[in-house]
Amino acid sequence: MGDCNFKLCHSLGNSDDLPNWRRVPGFPVFGVGQPSEKGFANIPEKMGKEKTIWFNCRQEPVAYVNGISITPRNKVNPHANIESSECIEANLLTTLEGRSAEGKVKVTKDKADADNPMDREEEDEDRPAVDLKGFTKVLGGMSEGPIPGMQVIRVPVIEERALPESALDIIVNALKSENPATCQCIFSSQLGQGRTTLGMTVACITKAVLMSTKLNKMVETGIGSRDWADNIIHKSFEELAASEDLKDPMLMGEFAVILELLEKLPGSKEGKVLADKMIDICGTAPEGTGIQNLRKCIIRTKYKYDAATEDRQVVWKKMIINFIERYFYLICFATYAKEQGPELFPKSFVAWMDEHKELRDMVAAGKDKLEWSRQVDQGAVDQLRSKIGGSDYKEKLGEIVTNLYKISHSTYADMPRGVIKDTLMRKLTCKTLMEILPAEVLTKIQAEMAEKKLTSDFETVVGLVVAA
């Protein structure tokens, strides 16, 4: 990118001036997607008068054209963020100024949002090349005017991950000498989702440890009782809200590599307690006010993976693996924070991870150890296969399909009710039906499907079986 040959300018196309703005319950920590230039004027009224730090969690440079934010993307892969440890915003502005001679800038944007990048469609539009500004300049204007003295810090985090490790140190270094109860933090990224939520969670973990340290010192000096401090610490930084989710080991993040971490890293069980509490209050309702729970999103994305076609599964699988790695790092960070925080973090997180370098190998080797395909009750399937083997299989079809649905329901018994579960059950019922059909019937059905270019959905397959 040295010559700043940006192939494509991309806009989120969001009409909301402050997309996904929220505050963490109990903490002066805020999150937001990329605001429009107009949206910045609405922020001061949402803030107090205390010191404010704005953390920009985007690696990719951002500029404003006529009040709307844009960022460069590679035309070959327009949905992937540019990853750069250096701020190359000035290069982007130089490129835009060169194009402004034509009076317009061609911008590509998504027609609509979609979880899976493969389902997104783009459209091009020309925008007037006027009022060009870098994101840094816009934030600087905030610190000079409506939020006096606001500090602006870039935290270049990789989307869907907790890397680089040094990015977490940037947040700690900015907060460790500030009053944790009053110093206001605003985290931003494109959507205000993964990277923003990660930054908010790291900030809350840091603040929680600093607040706990202050409470403990108050006990030591006789200002408060031990029971009083312990109750505040437990209620604010440890106790999870009552929920049926607590009974689900997958929603609680009990994946193989996480269990290995808890077994081998001293203090990590307490670290997980702190991480889980902060993840929840930075996450979705009812525990939080955010748009992504960094623990629960792992298994919920796995449900989408299960229901997707094979080509879409590739994208979901990558996300799931990244999410597990991110959760692993958050537990490591919380363990580090509880150890180093009481002394105001004399050791960096990177140095701490260097001392525990086996953790990097652990997560690299274990983050993809997940049950990628469901295990069906093969004994029950074999019993149905024997029933459908006779010439009277059509007469038994209703009973067989009913029993297949029972098998599918049992296979996905852990999943919550909803469209994804229904889709998975129908998909598995259809797949299992085709597996147990007599060979001559299956051959005939497959030939007809190929000839008529039919999809292998449940209704189609059952209709073909009846007509065979």
Task: Please mark out the parts with pLDDT under 50 across 5 or more consecutive residues, or reply none.
Answer: 1-7
| Count of the separate structural domains | 2
CATH class call of the largest domain? Alpha Beta
Number of helices: 16
Notes on the structure:
It contains 16 helices and 11 strands. The chain has 468 residues and is of the alpha/beta class. It folds into 2 domains: 8-366, Protein tyrosine phosphatase superfamily (Protein-Tyrosine Phosphatase, Chain A), CATH 3.90.190.10; 378-467, no CATH class. Strands 8-7-1-6-5-9 form a 6-stranded mixed beta sheet. A 5-stranded mixed beta sheet has the order 2-3-11-4-10, with helices on both faces. A hairpin with a 5-residue loop joins strand 2 (22-23) and strand 3 (29-32). The protein is globular and about 85 Å long.
